[in-house]
Amino acid sequence: MSVRELVVLGTASQVPTRHRNHNGYLLRWDGEGILFDPGEGTQRQMLRAGVAAHDIHRICVTHFHGDHSLGLAGVIQRINLDRVPHPVAAHYPASGQHYFERLRYATAYRETVLLDEVPVAADGVLAATPAYTLEARRLSHPVESFGYRLTEPDGRRMLPERLAALGVRGPDVGRLQREGVLDGVTLEQVSEVRTGQRFAFVMDTRLCEGVHALAEGCDMLVIESTFLDEDGQLAVDHGHLTVGQAARAARDAGVRHLVLTHFSQRYSDPDLFERQARVAGFEGELTVARDLLRVPLPKRHQ
């Protein structure tokens, strides 16, 4: 059975708190797992969340600040210790290659798994599989940062009334789906396009074109909202978003489910983030992330 969900491993900005671990997010996409921004403590959070090293097929790092990457050393070593049976791809800003190498080889261990380094140097497609296309977009932060977006290929939804009207039934429906035409009936005559799901991951950044491009039309947007709106100048100074900026970007992009995360330790009331997101005009499904939360992707478009 296919599963598409976000497993939140950590939600803190800069430093962990009593209730929030450093960043870490696992996206389950059918049979694959994509680990985003493993901060310090990710290995332990994986254990608490029921996530195994075998679940990881890709690692995507937005940038090389410690709260987004210090967990790499432990995660990579765990992947090798557990002898994960498949290759693992690692995406990260190319300008941080030396940081990645230091974390990958922080201590001695035995390499047993193929870790394919695929650094990101510019906007564009990083991987194309039958299940999704993964692309990156540049963000605006004091160090080079990229956001990530998964796009499922569009499919087709069969229309029973048109199938019946044209006399296509039983095994012939499957043949028509595979071959595209059957006895003069085309697939386009008896089906319509079903838009593939879209997921975006946006961490440390000011508001910029990359944010809007990544968010456009997403079923789920995971986005930093480090500061409340009244601390907007702090957001500008440190290269972050306010909750209002994140919510308006999601509203304007037509996002179906907004997941807010990466909260400054100065705030203790998560309800403030939800209230300000609603004031900003976002009316879709909204989650203020907390550690160890599982968030299912919205159902596919009908």
- What do the pLDDT scores average to? 96
Radius of gyration computed on alpha carbons: 21 Å
Write down the secondary-structure element order: EEEHEHHEHEEEEEHHEEEEHEHHEHEE
- What's the tally of helices? 10
Keywords:
globular; alpha/beta; 26% helix; 7-stranded mixed beta sheet; single chain; 302 residues
Summary, kept brief:
By secondary structure, the protein is of the alpha/beta class. 26% of the residues lie in helices and 26% in strands.
Please tell me about this protein's structure.
The chain has ten helices and 18 strands. The protein has helices at residues 42-49, 66-69, 72-81, 97-104, 160-165, 171-179, 209-215, 232-238, 243-253, 271-279, and strands at residues 4-10, 24-29, 32-36, 58-60, 88-91, 115-117, 124-128, 133-138, 146-151, 155-158, 181-182, 185-186, 191-194, 198-202, 220-224, 257-261, 285-288, 294-296. The strands form four sheets. Strands 6-5-4-3-2-1-18 form a seven-stranded mixed beta sheet. A seven-stranded mixed beta sheet has the order 7-8-9-14-15-16-17. β11 (181-182) and β12 form a beta hairpin. α7 crosses α9 and α9 packs across α10. The longest helix is centred in the last third of the chain and has 11 residues, at 243-253. The two termini are 19 Å apart.
